[in-house]
Amino acid sequence: MFEWSDIRIMLAVASAGSTLGAAKCLHMNQTTVSRRIQALEHALGLTLFERDTRGYALTLNGKALLELAEAMGGTAKRIETLSRSIARGTKGSIKISAAPDMHPYWVNPVTTAYRKKNPEVFFDIDDAVFNVDLGAGEADIAVRSGDEIQDEELVVRKLGKCVWAIFCSKTYVRKFGMPRSIEDLANREMFFYSPAIVDRLKVLRYLGERIKPEQVVQTFRAPTALSRTLEFSYAVGLLPVVAGASRPELVQCFTDPGFRQNVWLATSRDSYQRPLVRDFMKFFGDFTLKDGVTLV
């Protein structure tokens, strides 16, 4: 009889193309990986991999079993995800992931209002800059900015549009004057965002198409870092209104009809099975958000 853990190793070797690559992925010893593949082949009575100097490649027998093995892997992942979700549900807790700038103005008012009606509920806040894996149970609910969220494994609700604006420091205004429009940004040094973030957010692409690449003197991965640096710099930058307004040394220069970005609420289908998560998502969506979010 084979062991499920060996199927996991088989999938890793098939994906990596070698026992060394699989060992690194699984945080195991390469010798152990090789030994477990041999044990699996012996238990099944099949040769699953061709071995040569280039690495490991699935045989026809291995390819025939691959779909079922991947299904087993998916089931194991769902068990792990659901177990995490059930554990949080037993404790009456909800883990929410959102960018740091979102918490004070968008997340905290909602969780505070919800706890007034449900004081037994505990919220675990994850201020991740990058998206967490909801399917892996890293959070129950995520608040995300983006053009669209197209993932069949997620339950998604559109919250509204976040308003962005151009900001600069008070010192900058005294020395260079305040820009009043996109046209007025010409020849001004700017802080902007890394390509991965720009590709994901329409509002950044909109501005990026209207400024010259040579104007950008620094790029950042998140508004939090940009806003902190902007307070003490001779440059201008685009920020969510809620983020810029929280910095006492920053001045809002102007906004533009193109400075709007969709905001979404998302959860995995497994987490959505929890009544507490469903109830909070409805509450969040119905809650009147202020300070930079226009509901649509």
TrEMBL record:
Alphabetical list of SUPFAM superfamilies matching this protein: Periplasmic binding protein-like II (SSF53850), Winged helix' DNA-binding domain (SSF46785)
Keyword Ribosomal protein tagged: no
GO molecular function (one): DNA-binding transcription factor activity
Residue intervals of the HTH lysR-type domain: 2-59
GO-annotated biological processes: DNA-templated transcription
One Pfam family hit: HTH_1
Keywords for the protein's UniProt record, in alphabetical order: DNA-binding, Transcription, Transcription regulation
Keyword field contains Disulfide bond: no
Family per record: Belongs to the LysR transcriptional regulatory family.
Protein name, entry field: HTH-type transcriptional regulator YofA
Organism: Albidovulum aquaemixtae
